[in-house]
Write a structure and sequence with these properties.
The complex is a heterodimer of chains A (323) and B (99).
Chain A (H helix, E strand, L loop, with lengths): L2 H23 L3 H21 L3 H25 L14 H24 L6 H7 L8 H9 L1 H20 L14 H23 L7 H17 L14 H21 L12 H24 L25
Chain B lengths: L2 H26 L3 H27 L2 H31 L8
Helix pairs in contact in B: 1-2, 2-3
Classes of the chains: A mainly alpha (323), B mainly alpha (99).
């Protein structure tokens, strides 16, 4: 890495610090949300610079894409313009607490990073890669060596969706389309979303990709279709197959975890010779669940039945009242 | 350096001024419509030149096609986004500069 690389990394770090400050301290919440989305995109770039393309994919799709859509839609629920401006009150005592506390946290993290074993666990992972069932070390860690972490992550997503749904009913979708271009874009691009998700899922066995980026791409496609006025597959009146798909990822991971102990092997130990197909199966289940879970989060409440869609309206920006 | 490297490098360099001018337009133009005009035109042409240039430099047809696909998707998305922003601004009563 030459001087140009160093300058680029320095600018990237400065921009990240500036955007983080903006997204926490901006008076206008819209400004804060946009800063956060740009922060996610630059963070993905930073992960690419650190040669971690898997995390970059997940950060771009989930950190910037799905979280950005969630934050923007949460902002939309703040009814008045004044509610979007937060009150800035900062008594001097707050600074007296936060500056030492932040300094102590930074010092602790620096110490922890300093104390990390120098080469990391990369060699151990590569040495054990042969028996893991896949050729890509990150996928091997996520779905074989440390599959418990992935199980817990999917559990957290499911818990978040259940919690959001229990808080109230989802608001009505926007009644009027600002332009016919958005539905056209949704129809045109959704097949591409499906294709890219399948490609990422398949690539996961030998290259950066896997269930989380694939699920995030598919979920983002579903959110785009929702924004373009498509009717949701998730309805309150039907106990449709979507309930099964929401919990499919967690259920499959749990089943894979307890199969080992039940048949006299270790926890999360796959039956001999089946690691490859098992991982593919788990990736497909987890990818479908993650896509639907991200979309379920975006519904912002317990799903409701969409009324008949008023078509042919455009341009006036009026919205149906919430409930 | 091979011919492909030279051609690719020239295309990338040809693309850079479009980004520069698009950013300049975003910062200096007076209202949302003219800024969109600068962004939607300049960034798309610049991105196309950079993508094709990098694809030619890579020496792999598959990679070139993937980069061109990214560019085409970007064209569709940015054209739609620019239209949506402009349409929403008009609907909210923002008058174009100079009218």
């Amino acid at each position: 890495m030459g001087v140009a690389g160093l300058i680029f990394d320095g600018l990237l770090a400065l921009a990240l610090a500036w955007l983080a400050w903006q997204s926490t301290r901006a008076v206008d919440l819209f400004h804060a949300v946009v800063s956060f989305i740009v922060f996610g995109l630059l963070m993905a770039l930073a992960w690419v610079r650190l040669e971690a393309p898997d995390i970059a994919l997940a950060e771009a799709a989930i950190g910037a894409g799905a979280t950005g859509a969630l934050l923007l839609s949460a902002l939309d629920r703040l009814a008045t313009h004044d509610a979007r401006r937060r009150l800035l009150y900062e008594p001097a005592t707050a600074w007296g607490f936060w500056i030492p506390a932040g300094g102590a946290l930074l010092g602790g993290l620096t110490l922890a990073a300093w104390k990390l074993p120098a080469p990391g666990l990369g060699h151990e992972v590569l040495a054990a890669l042969k028996g893991s069932g896949v050729d890509h070390p990150v996928t091997a860690v996520l779905l074989n060596f440390r599959a418990l972490d992935t199980l817990l992550e999917i559990g957290v997503l499911l818990l978040a969706a259940v919690t959001i749904w229990s808080l109230g009913r989802a608001p009505s979708p926007v009644a009027a389309m600002p332009s016919p271009a958005l539905p056209a874009l949704g129809r045109l691009l959704f097949p591409v979303f499906v294709l890219v998700a399948a490609y990422l899922l398949w690539r996961g066995s030998h290259a950066p990709g896997g269930a989380f980026p694939a699920g995030a791409v598919l979920g983002a496609g579903a959110i785009l279709m929702r924004l373009a006025g498509a009717r949701s597959w998730i309805r309150s009146s039907e106990r449709g197959p979507w309930r099964w798909i929401l919990s499919l990822g967690l259920a499959m991971m749990l089943a894979a975890a307890v199969t080992g102990p039940l048949s006299g092997q270790a926890f999360f130990e796959y039956p001999p010779g089946t690691a490859g197909p098992m991982i593919l199966l788990l990736e497909v289940a987890a990818g479908l669940s993650i896509a639907l879970l991200l979309f379920a989060l975006y519904l912002r409440g317990e799903p409701r039945d969409d009324g008949p869609w008023p078509d042919g309206q455009r341009g006036d920006g009026q919205r149906e009242g919430v409930r | 350096m091979t011919a492909a490297q030279w051609v690719g490098g020239l295309l990338v360099f040809a693309g850079l001024p479009f980004f520069l001018l698009g950013t300049l337009g975003l910062l200096r133009f007076p209202d949302v419509y003219t800024r969109l005009h600068a962004l939607a035109k300049a960034d798309n042409v610049g991105l196309g030149l950079v993508c094709i240039g990098l694809g030619i430099q890579s020496g792999s047809v598959a990679l070139l096609l993937k980069l061109v696909l990214i560019w085409v998707l970007m064209l569709i998305a940015s054209a739609t986004a620019a239209g949506l922003i402009a349409g929403t601004a008009l609907a909210r009563g923002l008058r174009p500069w100079g009218t």
